[in-house]
């Protein structure tokens, strides 16, 4: 059975080494807090103004834009070498668990990535090398989140069979 990382690499087209190249450079030190705030603001402005794909915008209908911006930039800062702002306020990031209530399908992941790539391209303080590293990381991570339900389905089916078997004894 493929690991979550292998499945994410297969579906995203991004090798794990490229996805985690963000760990080889402290992007927080390189770019600074304000750049991450600007990136997240650009991203969520695009999401909340998305007129083309209302189904995507509807995923965020119960979220306050300002809180979504803060959650995202604090996570990015923490993940990319800065202080643990997100964990201090919200606890462990647990990306898969935190996204479980939302319909994170391949289609939703691609729309998220579309908006993030546009936000990266419209944030002038992010150099090209950092953009590439971030794009690879985001693409891989989102496909990792969407891979989990597919990978665990056979395990859940096996558990169900065992429960039925032992319940009938």
Automatic annotation (TrEMBL):
* TM annotation in the entry: 145-167
CDD domains reported for this sequence: TrHb2_AtGlb3-like_O
**Entries under Pfam families matching the protein:** Bac_globin (PF01152)
Q: Does the keyword Repeat apply?
A: no
Q: Does the keyword Membrane apply?
A: yes
**By its UniProt entry, which InterPro entries does this protein fall under?**
GlbO/GLB3-like, Globin-like_sf, Globin/Proto, Hemoglobin_trunc
- Family, per entry: Belongs to the truncated hemoglobin family. Group II subfamily.
Q: Protein name, please?
A: Two-on-two hemoglobin-3
State the organism of origin.
Salix udensis
């Amino acid at each position: 059975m493929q690991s979550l990382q292998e499945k994410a690499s297969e579906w995203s087209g991004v090798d794990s080494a490229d996805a985690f190249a963000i760990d080889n450079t402290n992007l927080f030190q390189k770019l600074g807090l304000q750049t991450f705030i600007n990136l997240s603001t650009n991203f969520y402005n695009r999401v909340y103004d998305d007129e083309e794909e209302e189904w995507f915008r509807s995923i965020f209908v119960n979220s306050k834009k300002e809180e979504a911006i803060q959650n995202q930039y604090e996570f990015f800062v923490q993940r990319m070498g800065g202080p643990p702002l997100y964990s201090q306020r919200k606890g462990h990031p647990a990306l898969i668990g935190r996204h479980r209530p939302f319909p994170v399908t391949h289609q939703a992941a691609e729309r998220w990535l579309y908006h993030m790539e546009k936000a990266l391209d419209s944030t002038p303080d992010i150099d090209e090398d950092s953009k590439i590293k971030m794009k690879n990381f985001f693409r891989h991570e989102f496909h990792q989140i969407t891979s989990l339900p597919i990978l665990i389905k056979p395990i859940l089916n096996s558990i169900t069979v065992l429960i039925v078997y032992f319940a009938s004894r």
